[in-house]
Write a structure and sequence with these properties.
The chain has 184 residues and is α/β, with parallel strands linked by helices. It contains 3 helices and 8 strands; from the N terminus they run E-E-E-E-E-E-E-H-E-H-H.
Amino acid sequence: MDSYLPISDSGLVEISQGFLQGLQRESSLAFFEIPYAKPPLGELRWAEPEIPDPWEAEIYNATVNQHRSCPMYSDLAGSTEDCLTLNIFMPKPSEISRNDLLLPVMFWLHGGSFRNGNKDQNGFDGQYMAETHKVIVVNAEYRAGAFGFMYEESVPSIQGNQGIKDQVRALEWVNQNIEFFLGD
């Protein structure tokens, strides 16, 4: 590994929360299910997303896509409220020339009219874009449906637009950490 790179082809990188291990692919790296906010559980269910704590493990395993999906309605089947995560896809550092540093970043949010959808919908995987266009691809999960957009005037703790606030928090996380992945 060249000394000018903060990340290796093996996918080990240190970010603000600690060390992170990504998945090695042919010409790219993938990092799955990186928490960009604390899980919106208990008192945080209707709150604005909070900056996540450093992880307890020495190295966070980001090699497996668990396909975490935020619940959209009261039916939680197939989803988890511990869902404020994002995925990152990037070319392997050895595939990037010194002239290319830092790479452009493509930030993708799923559709679904704020009612449904998830970051993995339709099998979304940024590997092709990362390898062929030499970009960093980030996709983020956010609260949708009632969990993301409910407003209840009689309950001051339910202010609404949690899903939009999640998206803003994900963008803030990217802004604070993407340079460690060689992104601009």
